[in-house]
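Much of our argument rests on the idea that a fold can be written as discrete symbols. Part of our work consisted of pairing the sequence of a single chain with a tokenised description of its backbone. No coordinates are needed to read the tokens, only the vocabulary itself. The record that follows shows the chain in one-letter code together with its fold in token form.
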Amino acid sequence: MKLVKYVSGLFLLGILVLIFSFNNSESDNYKKHYLAKINTFIQAQNKLGNTISNSTKITKAEIELIRNEIAHTRLQLKAVDFWLRYLEPLAYKKINSPLPVEWETEVFEKHEKPYKRIGAGLTLAEFYLDEEQINKDTLLHLITESQKATNTFLQDSITNKMKSHDHFYLCNRLFLLNLASIYTTGFECPDTSNVIPELRFMLTQTKELYTVYNQSFPTNPLSDNYFKLFDATIQFVNKSSNNYSHFNHFEFIRDYINPLFILNQQFIINYSVFSSSNLDYALNKTANSIFDKNLYNGQNTKGIFLRVNDETSLQLINDLGKKLFFDPILSVNNERSCASCHKPNEYFTDTAVATSLQLNNKDVLSRNTPSLINVQFNHLSMLDGKFYTLQHQGKAVITNPIEMGSDEVEVVKKVLNVPEYKKGFKKLLKYTPQEKEVTLEHLVSAISFFYGKFGNGYAPFDDAMNKKGTVSQDVIKGFNLFMSKAQCATCHFVPQFNGVKPPFIGSEFEVLGTPQDAHYKALSPDKGRYEINPATETMNAFRTGSLRNIEHTKPYMHNGVFKTLDEVVEFYNGGGGAGRGLKVDNQTLSSDSLKLNVNEKQHLIQFMKALSEKVVLSNQ
């Protein structure tokens, strides 16, 4: 009780200090609006904390009272989510984290080791209310941690960012991306009956925010067209059912959110919006759609040739990379090429076997051959996130004793003994002044540049979202299921349908309980992410892959255990491995059945087939 009151007092003191420290500037009203909304949220947090603190015994009646207080507090959070999620993303995860434990796997892992982040806040508190035994102190801890994190948003460093228009359009960009990817899926809302009501409240609160912003920053305003479209968005949601499974996610994104995003991108360019945040690391301000393949990038396919921009040299890099991709010279026995396992006419995977053969042509590799298409949309490469760059992955494959088995120095010598390779790579050395001689880095960079361009193709679903084509009603039904009842979108996020969610700087790793065989006799022994970052949460965890081109990239799962999409859908429908009786204590996938009927399963598959991209493939 004392802790809750102490934290509450700090919040109120912080607000008073900030209010009296304002200067008379055009942004004052905007900042006052921000603080008023934060204050309302803080009051709701305090009331929730006091309700828990004053409970003598957590009875069923008190659980319902606390649940109602959480629902009210969540609504007040939605009124400030626009700012909180962008301005202090780490603090936000204490306020409303959907995960009890999260390992840092973002782009920053390239510079430091992963570290453990303990979650807290409203979503976890609501999940905890469903436990058989509820400890009052544990529940209170989740809320007091949330209160402490909220205090971050009362600091001068936050409100100072509001003196210019820059933060507004960057906050708005993330807000719109999350409307497409997160807010309507139940990813952060345990009670899915609240998803659409929360969305309604959030939109009306954001409209109010927009109005105050325009009054405070008349030289960099939102346009009348933007307001008209946003009003239409609110009307669309107001007319929609409260049942998020009946919500038309397809029309919501195509007709409202994506056009709003396009307008916001134009504002970012026209108003010369500046960002100093690592949160914007991967995003591209020139992307003209959420479904633009240039929206974000996780990998540099050029590698060591990053400085090359002229078309003639890029074509040379591509030609060298293509030739190397099909050339068995990279293997120690001159018998295996990249294309031996990543077959271009099979979408750069191997559809014939569950896992490809090792170099000895007798034993098999432990994992299914992943497609190389769209690999640039992951910050970490391989299913276990072992590599930070495509080039490091390429070098590892070439030198792996059971894959290509080559020595790094010797393979470069072999390649340069071929006149065409020697002439081409020597010509490109001028672009890599830090390297005096051709290295394996040059070779793998040419290869990644070659296969990287195959991720630029668009699917019928993309065309429909960009209003350049249409898809069938079965596909639309499948997408709406995907975003709601089937719960697919809580792991496979719009627009790449992989594990990278806005702001696209991190990859999700999930524990699904994948079986060793299709009869579920045992759990797959592959430890996955645990081999790279040992922890209880990472045992049997794998990076969530893209569903693009999934129609053409069988067999499925890390071990190729499933041969058809019907089997895959049924695996998820039945609650993964734990739902089939396998012991998977840390499974992140719900073990409950999704209760999808026959038609719903087929609609899901039709949607996934609409993600097959227009990729021109060839053997040579």
The mean pLDDT is 92. DSSP finds 21 helices and four strands in the chain.
